[in-house]
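input
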Amino acid sequence: MIPNNRVVAHFLDGRVIKGTTSNFFPNRPTFHLLAVGAGQDTEVQCRQLKAVFFVKDLAGDENRKDVRGFVEGPAETSKGKKIALSFKDGEFLVGYSLSYSPERVGFFLFPADPGSNNMRVYVMIFAVSEIQVGPAAEQLAKRFLAGRDAA
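output
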């Protein structure tokens, strides 16, 4: 039996669809998503996505505040090197990746915050406005947090 992954698909046009998938593969241009409450799955075109969030719980916790920085985390873990990125829509993520390459269409990011509802995020490179790796990722996170705190 193929396990279903709980996912939240964020589209470039701002739509968000929560549901499950059993056939998401990073090297394929489409996958099927069974949205919560839907009777049948929908084919999703990856080129229409910003990211696919693989989550612990589809409901999440709207009162929880995710840790946005690295919190003195190591430069590299078993989940990869530090990555900080800003999406074109302004959303900011920090985490670790074993598979990031600017030449690829996307990559998996493992959140730096171990308490996050996100287990991993498949990020589409074309939806990102800025991305930094290693020590530069820490600087980007600090810059983002300083800007947010000043606002």
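quick obs: Residues 76-150 form a domain with the SH3 type barrels. fold (CATH 2.30.30).
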